[in-house]
Amino acid sequence: MATFRFGQHIIKASAVFLQTELSFALVNRKPVVPGHVLVCPLRQVERFRDLRPDEVADLFKTTQMVADVVEKHFQGTSLTISIQDGPEAGQTVKHVHVHVLPRRAGDFQRNDSIYDELQKHDKEDEDNPAKWRTEEEMGREAADLRKLFS
Ligand code: AMW
């Protein structure tokens, strides 16, 4: 089975629900909200500025498509779309990735708390394997999403 490179991580094809010419989208092992997924360039590039124009175009076209599908699938009514570009911005995986997070009324008491959660959800003390979803759960979610793109 093919695998994908996501920074230091090797991602199984079962967790990837969309591949385009230059990008791919995967489910998250530790979602901040239901439907929190990631869209990445296929090429392992650390910073947003390092992407070629065709990669930026593909990444954002793919993000637009993915965002629309996950918002509807997870019964969201809005979206937070975010890139943590560099370690001081909270980036832990050295491979550009766009966070797509379906939003709904009341999901956070303070709306912008989602950014605090995003910043800390995968930091050392918060991010241990016991808190990750199982491969099976991620595989099921990716399979459901994959159908929505075919
Ligand atoms: W960053 O803090 O670098 O902006 O976000 C990294 C994201 O990647 C986090 O949401 C984290 O949960 C997710 N993640 C890290 N490793 C994996 C993996 N192997 N499979 C799925 N998601 C992952």
Gist?
Residues 1-110 form the HIT domain. The chain has 150 residues and is an alpha+beta fold.
Give an overview of the whole structure.
This protein is an alpha+beta fold. The protein has one domain: 2-Layer Sandwich (HIT family, subunit A), CATH 3.30.428.10. 28% of the residues lie in helices and 22% in strands. It contains 3 helices and 7 strands, in the order βββββαββαα. It has a 5-stranded antiparallel beta sheet. A two-stranded antiparallel sheet has the order 1-2. A hairpin with a 3-residue loop joins strand 3 and strand 4. The longest helix has 21 residues. The chain is globular and about 40 Å long. The two termini are 20 Å apart. The mean pLDDT is 96.
**Unreliable residue stretches:** none
- Residue fraction in strands: 15-25%
Bound molecule kinds, no repeats: adenosine monotungstate
So what's the overall shape? globular
Share of helix, binned: 25-40%
In the CATH hierarchy, what is the superfamily?
Answer: HIT-like
- What structural class is derived from the secondary structure elements? alpha+beta
Q: Return Rg in Å.
A: 14 Å
Instruction: Work out the count of structural domains.
Output: 1
**Which strand order spans the largest sheet, edge to edge or round the barrel?**
3-4-5-7-6
CATH class call? Alpha Beta
| CATH topology (fold) name | HIT family, subunit A
Enzyme class: hydrolase
Active site: 97 (tele-amp-histidine intermediate)
GO biological process, one term: purine nucleotide metabolic process
Cofactor: Mn(2+)
